[in-house]
Amino acid sequence: MPERSLPTGFAALDACLGGGWPLGSLTEILYRHEGIGEISLLLPSLAAISRENRWIIWIAPPYLPYPPALARSRMQLSRLLWIEGGRDDETWWALEQSLQSRDCGAVLFWQGVRTHGQWRRLQHAVVRGGSFAVWLHPADLPGAFVPALRLGLEPAAQESLLVHVLKRRGGWASGPVVITP
User: Fold this and answer.
1) Which of 29, 61, 147, 170 is the most exposed place for a label (fewest CB within 10 A)?
2) pTM for this structure?
3) Domain of 64, in residue numbers
4) For residues 74 and 165, what is the distance between their CA atoms, to the nearest angstrom?
């Protein structure tokens, strides 16, 4: 049975990923520095999800989301829920509940995954919920667990982004793909 996917909004990246972002599994995005375009890479898909009246949840982002940029991407801001990081147990509870909710179309999180047990719980939750789930973090933070998709990002010329497909289910690593959000 083919994996369900969500178009990325970038034809070259969709081709590299075998159709788009995997749904119902975890995607890991590693970046060298915050603010190189990691969110702009996700905006076309997040905007499409919001227009389906599904929730987009950001859990413990390092910075406040910038509404004017999100609105320019045609995202329905009324469908965005931002959860500030607090105590680890509370943040993990919110993450797990969001991932397994069928009302959530996408869950983005910046919380570090420290144990195999935490990783397994997240995997089970996202399978139950079927959403687009993305763990974003600096490349120097070890990714000790194996997601369905792992991308590495680095800045490129003229506000472009190099996307390296480091690991994907059902295919070899590939890239880089140059994206201009």
Assistant:
1) 170
2) 0.91
3) 5-179
4) 27
